[in-house]
Design brief:
Layout (H helix, E strand, L loop, with lengths): L1 E5 L3 E4 L13 E3 L3 E2 L6 E6 L6 E8 L10 E4 L5 E5 L3 E8 L4 E6 H4 L7 E7 L6 E10 L2 E12 L1 H5 L6 E5 L3 H7 L2 H9 L5 E6 L5
Parallel strand pairs: 1-5, 6-12, 9-14, 11-15
Antiparallel strand pairs: 1-2, 3-14, 4-5, 6-9, 7-8, 7-10, 10-11, 12-13
């Protein structure tokens, strides 16, 4: 049996395993379903992609250096796009003209107003490339502080990282409801300029 993701195109992928961290806010597990076009293929994720949208695959493979925090993706207006935790991946639909997203740790989003924060401004790579998340390390064999970092990855690079992940998808309305409960903190992170907020511009490599 093969497995696939349906977005702008079909990609042949390996089977998925189980998530190794709590389910990210606003997300739900997606169970594989048998393809209606090819019964030998399981569809792991699918997303409608009208001309005004594009599919964006985001993967966070299991990582011994990772914390349990999720990476939450927001657009420039602070709207919920999706989230991933260690051991999960998601296929998101984003406006085709989107050039950047804000990537923020769920721990930092839920911290009290006034807490320090690092906000990653992530450049959206051209389709069909996606985003690969990993935990920071001081060296290949020494873990860092567990904070997630993002880098661009090709479709082929992402496929090799999907063996041990569980696919999740946004739960309609749930992400926005979760953000609403932390709106003061979201507004502080995205809009209030102060010494407490540090922007990290990212353009295709590790942050």
């Amino acid at each position: 049996m093969r497995a696939a993701i349906l977005g702008a195109c079909v990609m042949t992928l390996a089977f998925v395993g189980c998530a190794s961290a709590p389910l990210p806010p606003g997300m739900t597990v997606r169970s594989p379903v048998v393809s209606t076009e090819d019964s030998s293929m399981d569809v792991l994720a699918s997303v409608p992609v009208p001309p005004s949208m594009r599919a964006l695959l985001v993967a966070y493979p299991p990582d011994p250096c990772a914390s349990t925090a999720s990476v939450v993706l927001l657009d420039g207006r602070g709207r919920f796009i999706g989230a991933v935790a260690p051991g999960t991946a998601t296929l998101l639909a984003v406006p085709a003209l989107t050039r950047t997203l804000h990537a923020i740790s769920s721990d930092e989003l839920t911290a009290p107003v006034g807490s320090s924060v690092v906000r990653d401004v992530v450049v959206v790579p051209p389709s069909p490339s996606g985003l690969l998340v990993s935990a920071t390390r001081f060296s290949p064999s020494v873990c860092g502080n567990g904070r997630p970092q993002l880098e661009s990855a090709t479709k082929e690079q992402l496929e090799w990282k999907l063996v041990d992940v569980a696919f999740i998808e946004p739960r309609p309305g749930a992400g926005e409801a979760w953000l609403a409960a932390h709106r003061a903190r979201v507004d502080e992170i995205l809009h209030r300029r102060s010494e407490m907020a540090v922007d990290v511009a990212w353009s295709g490599g590790p942050l």
